[in-house]
Amino acid sequence: MDSVRCLKDTNPFIAGVNIFEIGLDGLKLMDNSFIEGDRYTTFRNLGISVGGFGKKKVAEKRIVIAFRRESLDSFETFAED
Fold first, then answer.
1. Nearest CA-CA partner of 3 in 54, 56, 79, 70
2. What is the CB-side half-sphere exposure of residue 67 using CA atoms within 13 A?
3. Which among 16, 18, 21, 73 is positioned nearest to 42, based on CA atoms?
4. Which residues touch 81 (CB under 8 Å, ≥6 apart)?
5. What pLDDT, in 10s, does the model give residues 13-64?
6. Which of 45, 46, 39, 34 is closest to 76 using CA atoms?
7. What is the CA 79 to chain-centroid distance, rounded?
């Protein structure tokens, strides 16, 4: 499995906090190594990409994608598109 997706009707936690509750600014405080695109932001150290928090919305409204460290390059490109 390469990644796991959590949609807005779930409660994804990382390091004991709900990702949807702390939002993009809270995640930036947890991991300052990120790539921010119009729709998605990828956090390198946390190993997640989040969508629907930025300038443009995504079809899922809000989404968190947790990925394997070996897939980081793909998700860095994903955020930039």
1. 70
2. 20
3. 73
4. 37
5. 998 999 999 999 999 999 999 999 888 899 999 999 998 887 777 777 888 9
6. 34
7. 9
